[in-house]
Amino acid sequence: MLPYLGKRFLLILPTIFVPLILVFLLLRLSPGDPAGMMLGDQATAEQIAALRTQLGLDQPIWVQFLLWLKGIVTLDLGNSIFFREPVMQIIPRYAGVTILLTLVALTLAVLIGVSMGLVSAMNRNKPIDRGVVTTAVLGISLPEFWFALLLIFLFAVTLRWFPVAGYNPPSAGIVAFAATIFMPALALGVRQSALMTRMMRSSMLDVLNEPYITTARAQGLPESTVIGRYAMRTAAMPVITVAGLSAGYMLGGAVTIEIIFALPGLGRMLVEAVGRRDYPLVEGGVLTISLVLAVLNLAIDLVYAILDPRIRYQ
Amino acid sequence: MTAHIAPLAADPVSPNIERRTVLAVENLGLSLRNADGLLPIVTDVSFSIREGEAVALVGESGCGKSITASAIMGIAPDNSVITGTITLNGKVISGLSPKDRRKLCGRHMGFIFQEPMTALHPTLSIGRQMTDTLRHNLGLGQAEATNRAAELLDRVGIPRARDILKGYVHELSGGMRQRVMIALAISCGPSLIIADEPTTALDVTIQAQVLDLLDDMRREMNLAMLFITHDLEVVGDFCEKAVVMYAGDVVERGLSADVVQAPAHPYARGLIDAVPAHDDGRTRLTPILGTVPPVGQWPEGCRFAPRCNRADDQCRARPALERHGPTDARCWHPLETMA
User: Fold this and answer.
1) Domain ranges in chain A?
2) Tens of pLDDT along A151-199?
3) Quick check: A310 contacting B, CB < 8 Å?
4) Radius of gyration (C-alpha) of chain A in whole angstroms
């Protein structure tokens, strides 16, 4: 078990550093310059050059990169060029919202996907199965922003159950938090839940044909145990894989949802920071997302290893 | 379908001891319902097994032997239509609901499948699979069930039983896997064991060990055993009686010694001639020409007629299963007994 996790942990490093290197280079390749952005149209070339020197932007790119790597190791990601305060202080203010949004969306997606997929597989080719499959195709085809607007129209404008937009942190009370996170999480999770429904259905139908399911039945075990323990144990694996991919997609794709629901999340922060060419903040944001994704993937690998003993020995 | 049940040949093994009939299958038929109507898979299968007796169900792939077993087990496909009567320990079980049939599994009937690698759960420990069964069927607690499981593994000849309980199927060798399968099948004290080609997936050297183990279990626990196989040597060595199936029908039935040595049905003869013998000096095997007709394309009358060199006009009518010499055969022109 431990060697397996150690190996997984080593594989995380490229997951984190490749996007960082790409972002670091792309930012500096793109036109526009933080010094120019900050000083505005009226600034002279000398003023801009002076600010560039002050920000360290005049040094060769590999020196900048090494300095930034040194910053990561010493937990100093530099100061935001726009906010003029340490990136390490800004990120946590935004990251919490995005991580919570992703976790709630993922939970909703898994709950909906697994239960719908199970209902569908258990009633194969019956009307309820066809209904679920059709709904899932619809769910996969829906653009998130459109579904988000639909939710706002239904739950916020017409029924007035939830506020149209805005955010209450969990510290404001669980009900207040839930009221602001439910619609964004559902909008973010609906497509993933449709994917998981389909995955759960086909995976369960496959597993139900396995000889060990026949054995479990032939041993006289009740159908609830056969499905709930013997079939779910293996049928869940592909769904867990999808959940991992979904989590990555949601972390990166939360931008639209955060903007529609006016959530102060990492996605929105990143879009604004890119616009301002705030190099340190963008790099810090990407590092955070990569880290969260890496931790999530490690957690999924751990779940795999717990569910499937064959993996532990590879 | 006739209600005719031919009496079986006299029992030479223990003629004086009255042995209880454990399983009786009478005129079993199974059809699958599909869009075009009913597709017959098995028609008119009758045989019985007494306690301590092994009966072989023999035939080529696709003759209906495995689905016959699944009908007895109560796990035939959902779209099956089953006719005839199945009696277990004197109780008619063919009319019971699927839920009540499930309750008989494990407790009264145990099953051994062909490929233990896939028939055992890949990610649940051996111990978990065994204790789940023991706890559910016998109402044991976890500790009791674990002890019982270890005893069972011990009994089927698995060393270090406690360690194996914590292990998984992929960690075991083929022979060990089938031993675990056997331990699972006998775990709740069934009176009937159905073994579906239990040695086909094993190495030749292991096959004999597993067969010996099954034979020991049958003797020790006085088990009735239905042995599904296409291996005629196994039939002769391990089973008292043999039932030969062809295209969904029983074509020959009797004591295995008689069926193997003096078959009345040309198909049974063909099966025996197609087996390499060790000592009769033949250099070439005699195959049965042609192939088994697929389900749904069975000929009228005798289903073996198109492949049979004894067939004539009479074979266009369906023969009944009748006594010819020492065995029962479904044939208009049975072979003379080579006495």
Assistant:
1) 87-312
2) 888 888 888 888 878 888 888 888 888 888 888 999 999 989 999 999 9
3) yes
4) 24
User: Domain A87-312 is classified in which CATH homologous superfamily?
Assistant: MetI-like (1.10.3720.10)
pLDDT tier for residue B104 given thresholds of 50, 70 and 90: very high
Question: Of A212, A221, A233, which is closest to B136 when you measure between CB atoms?
Answer: A221
Q: Which of B73, B130, B132 to mutate to test the interface with A (most CBs of A within 10 A)?
A: B132
Give the nearest partner residue to B136 out of A220, A230, A309, using CB atoms. Answer: A220
Q: Which of B129, B137, B170 sits opposite A220 (nearest CB)?
A: B137
Nearest Cα residue to B202 out of B232, B174, B170: B174
Instruction: Calculate how close chain B gets to A221, using CA atoms only, in Å.
Output: 7
Nearest residue on chain A to B72, alpha-carbon basis: A218
- The reply to whether B125 touches chain A by the CB within 8 Å rule is yes
Q: For the residues B55-62, what does the mean pLDDT come to? A: 88
Say whether residue B60 is in contact with chain A using an 8 A CB cutoff.
no
Return left, alpha or beta for B64; rule: phi > 0 is left, psi -120 to 50 is alpha, else beta: left
| Nearest chain A residue to B107, by CA | A220
Nearest residue on chain B to A235, judged by CA atoms? B123
One digit per residue, the tens of pLDDT, for chain A of length 314 reads 777 778 888 888 888 888 888 888 888 887 777 777 777 777 788 888 888 888 778 888 888 888 888 888 888 888 888 888 998 899 998 988 898 899 999 999 999 999 999 999 999 889 999 999 999 999 888 888 888 899 888 888 888 888 878 888 888 888 888 888 888 999 999 989 999 999 999 999 999 999 999 999 999 999 999 999 999 999 999 999 888 888 888 887 788 888 888 888 898 899 889 888 888 898 888 888 888 888 888 888 888 888 888 877 65
A-chain residues within 8 Å CB-CB of B170?
Answer: 309-310
> Degrees (nearest 5) of the Cα angle A245, A246, A247?
90
ipTM above 0.90, yes or no: no
**Interface with A, mutate which of B78, B99, B120, B121 (most A CBs under 10 A):** B121
**Alpha-carbon distance A257 to A263, whole Å?**
8
Q: Please tell me whether the overall predicted TM-score, pTM, comes out greater than 0.90 for this model.
A: no
Q: How far is CA A168 from CA A23, A74, A97, A134, B94, in A?
A: 31, 33, 9, 35, 63
Strand partners, B327: B324
B304: left (phi over 0), alpha (psi -120 to 50) or beta: alpha
Q: What is the pLDDT of residue A115?
A: 95
- Tell me if B102 and A222 make a contact (CB, 8 A cut-off): yes
